[in-house]
Design the sequence.
RNA sequence: CGGGGCGUGGCUCAGCUUGGUAGAGCACCUGGCUUGGGACCAGGGGGUCGCAGGUUCAAAUCCUGCCGCUCCGACCA
């Protein structure tokens, strides 16, 4: 490709709208342009990168027996109504009507479509297992699209669906995908970590997320230095903590004026925060829920949601609290009606603790959980923090941030049951197909790669996904010798199968170097005066800045060697 | 959905307080000069100042409404 023909409009200045580095660099380097909030055009350089990522993904999916197909973007409402997700998805779903008033949506994911697609055709155990996938644009009307390609409203995703006879088959498919995902992200040159995850709205049980480790990541994860445990904080388990034994005291109501926070109550009573109980109120589709954790702990809302089986959960407002007959700042589990009390397992270990009395300026003291109140649910609902013990080995966990580039789920029969996808086993008995779903954010992976590979001058592409491998730069276009040698190097590299850009633009050397660094070609091949007079072609590695000189006739093999090392 | 900020040429921004014929740098076009890290000189093209109302002799500037972008929040009572 000749740079004079390449449509890659670079910007000297960073557009004001971009906050994270990947977004800034993709705009500046001429990879993307915005069409609307969270919706982007992929220009030729970006498209080349995306196709490389897709190619790696296809190879790894195919290697595990996946078969590629393509489903529609526009999906009819009926199948979503059958599984209930037409309502569950809420405002995040792009909806539209055709001229007859029939409801459709732009596919946010395709479990419903794939399941209805195969249910009429797959009738026998002989047709299983089956793995089908597509690479397709997905649509989610995010509350707040941000960070460029990292959280867009339209994005490119690979989604694979596995269909098995039973749980054993599902586990096998799941393990294959887990392995394939590890291979994909390794080949893309990313530093990543699979972590245990909460399946969330997709449903099912058993899930891992593949996290690209980056400061700008939206997800918080913990991992153990002592063993290989790693999890999203939403999921990370915690064992209950024992409290030192104490003789139970009689419960008493005590005036605690103005103590609306744990810190204030603890100070007023002269107790450490870990001898108190914190109560948070949530409105859910299952009614009002009180979540109890030890005073110095935090609530994990996902765990609360799972503990009560709620689809919807948010902090209760003052009106809801008033209706429930309690007082903000002084809430507690004792004497409340029509409230589901969920206690963290650690709370149940406390002796002579403190809870709000559900009236202003009063707390109960010397409360003994189990004796003085009995929660409807006791579960692990605590949010893990750095330094908490690993649930597997007890070593303190470390915290990190990650960009979720892939997630694998064991769905079991959630969708196959709702959509009636069954097969006949050997004995002629009807069985429900067991499913898994496996996604990779292709466009997000591109952004994540930039988040992890950049410097002050621009992008540093891992060679496997770089839009081009090398840029040939004649320093002085006016010099015929340089121009001709650069043309020759370019022709030879292309003939040798090296994806190369020849910067034939009538620009000064500085401009060409700056653009090459910004775009992030792994190698710069500089043809200057020395190349012509001393037969020394300069090859500079983008990442390390390392410089090699080759005689022109050896340059191509030298470049191929360098690329092989990247 | 709540709160803040911002919408002026392709990009970054000034001008708005105090109304009076729309600016700079970069980018772009022409010519010259230059050629190893975003040169220089001269000339030139390009803007319904987000949209719609209103106030005024006169609105980018003041007022009202709307739209868009962006940041924070929508978790620890």
Sequence:
């Amino acid at each position: 490709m000749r740079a004079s023909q390449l449509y890659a409009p670079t910007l000297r200045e960073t557009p004001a709208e971009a906050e994270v580095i990947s977004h800034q660099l993709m705009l500046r380097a001429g990879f993307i342009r915005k069409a609307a909030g969270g919706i982007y055009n992929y220009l030729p350089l970006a498209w080349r990168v995306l196709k490389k990522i897709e190619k790696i993904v296809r190879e790894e999916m195919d290697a595990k027996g996946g078969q590629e197909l393509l489903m529609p973007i526009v999906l009819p409402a009926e199948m979503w109504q059958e599984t209930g997700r037409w309502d569950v998805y809420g405002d995040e779903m792009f909806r539209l009507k055709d001229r007859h008033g029939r409801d459709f949506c732009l596919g946010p994911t395709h479990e419903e479509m794939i399941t209805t697609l195969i249910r009429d055709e797959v009738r026998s155990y002989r047709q299983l297992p089956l793995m089908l996938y597509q690479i397709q644009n997905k649509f989610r009307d995010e509350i707040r699209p941000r960070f460029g390609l990292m959280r867009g409203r339209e994005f490119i995703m690979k989604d694979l669906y596995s269909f098995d006879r039973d749980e054993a088959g599902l586990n096998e498919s799941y393990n294959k995908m887990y392995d394939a995902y590890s291979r994909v992200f390794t080949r893309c040159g990313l530093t990543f970590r699979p972590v245990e995850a909460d399946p969330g709205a997709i449903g099912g049980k058993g899930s891992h997320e593949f996290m690209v480790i980056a400061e700008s990541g939206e997800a918080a994860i913990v991992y153990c230095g002592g063993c290989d445990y790693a999890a999203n904080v939403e999921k990370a388990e915690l064992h209950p903590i024992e409290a030192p034994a104490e003789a139970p005291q009689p419960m008493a109501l005590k005036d605690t004026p103005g103590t609306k926070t744990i810190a204030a109550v603890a100070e007023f009573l002269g107790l450490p925060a870990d001898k108190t109980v914190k109560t948070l109120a949530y409105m859910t589709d299952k009614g009002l829920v009180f979540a109890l954790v030890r005073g110095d702990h935090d609530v994990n809302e996902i765990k609360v949601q799972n503990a009560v089986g709620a689809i919807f959960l948010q902090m209760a407002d003052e009106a809801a609290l008033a209706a429930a007959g309690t007082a903000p700042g002084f809430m507690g589990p004792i004497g409340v009606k029509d409230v589901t009390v969920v206690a963290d397992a650690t709370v149940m270990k406390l002796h002579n603790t403190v809870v709000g009395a559900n009236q202003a300026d009063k707390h109960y003291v010397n409360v003994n959980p189990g004796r003085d109140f009995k929660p409807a649910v006791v579960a692990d609902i605590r949010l893990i923090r750095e330094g908490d013990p690993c649930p597997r080995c007890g070593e303190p966990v470390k915290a990190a941030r990650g960009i979720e580039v892939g997630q694998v789920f064991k769905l079991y029969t959630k969708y196959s049951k709702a959509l009636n996808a069954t097969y006949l086993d050997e004995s002629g008995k009807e069985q429900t197909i067991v499913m898994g779903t496996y996604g990779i954010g292709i466009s997000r992976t591109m952004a994540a790669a930039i988040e992890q590979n950049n410097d002050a001058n621009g992008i540093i592409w891992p060679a496997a996904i770089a839009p081009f491998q090398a840029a040939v730069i004649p320093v002085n276009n006016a010099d015929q010798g340089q121009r001709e040698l650069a043309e020759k190097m370019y022709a030879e590299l292309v003939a040798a199968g090296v994806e190369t850009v020849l910067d034939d633009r009538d620009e000064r050397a500085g401009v060409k170097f700056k653009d090459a660094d910004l775009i992030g070609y792994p190698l710069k091949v500089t043809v200057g005066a020395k190349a012509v007079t001393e037969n020394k072609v300069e090859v500079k590695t983008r990442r390390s800045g390392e410089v090699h000189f080759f005689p022109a006739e050896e340059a191509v093999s030298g470049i191929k060697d360098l690329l092989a090392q990247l």
